[in-house]
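Reading a protein record of the kind used here takes little practice once its layout is understood. The reader may check this reading against the record printed directly beneath this paragraph.
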Amino acid sequence: KLRLTYLGTNCLHLQDGETRLLIDPFFTRPSLFALLRRVAPNPSIIQNCLERANISRLDAVLLSHTHYDHALDAVLTARLTGALLVGSASASRLAAGGGLPVESCLRAEDGRSLSFGAFRITFFQHPHLSLNGLGWLAGGNIEKPLLPPVPAWQYRQGEVFTILCQHPAGNLLVVG
C-alpha cells in the first residue's frame, strides 16, 4: 500500500511496505538566531524524529537541492538508515564533508530515472523559485566538501530538481 507522510518543512516519507524513500530531510531546524552563526545537523533530534516516524531503514534519501532547509540533515539521515543519498554534485560534496562513503551517493541528472523497488524516480532540472534578489546569498554550487558546522549560506542550492515519483499505486511530483 502506497503511503506518503509529511514530516514537516520540506520532508516527505514515501513508502509502499517494502521500499522507503525520504525526500529533503530537515529535522534539526535551527532557530533564526542560530542561522546568524554556524549550523550543523543535530544527531539526537534526527534520531528522535526518525524514531517518532517509525523509520529505521531507508532505501534512498532524495534531495531536490542543497539549501540548508532541504539538505542539512541528509548525510546523517542516510548514514543512520543505510540509505543511498541521491542528489546533485553539491549533494555529493555534502556527503564527502560528512564522511559518507562514495558508494553511498548517486548523482541525479536531468531526465535520469532510477528504480527503487516498485518506485521509478525521475529527476528534472528546473530553476529555483525566486529569492527576491537574494539568489547571490545561497545560489551557485557547493564547490568543495562541506563539513558542518558552517554558516547556513554555505549550503548553496546546487542544481535544483523536480522529483517525479512513479509507482503502480500512484504518482507524486515533488517541487522542492
Notes: The radius of gyration is 15 Å. The CA atoms of residues 22 and 121 lie 12 Å apart.
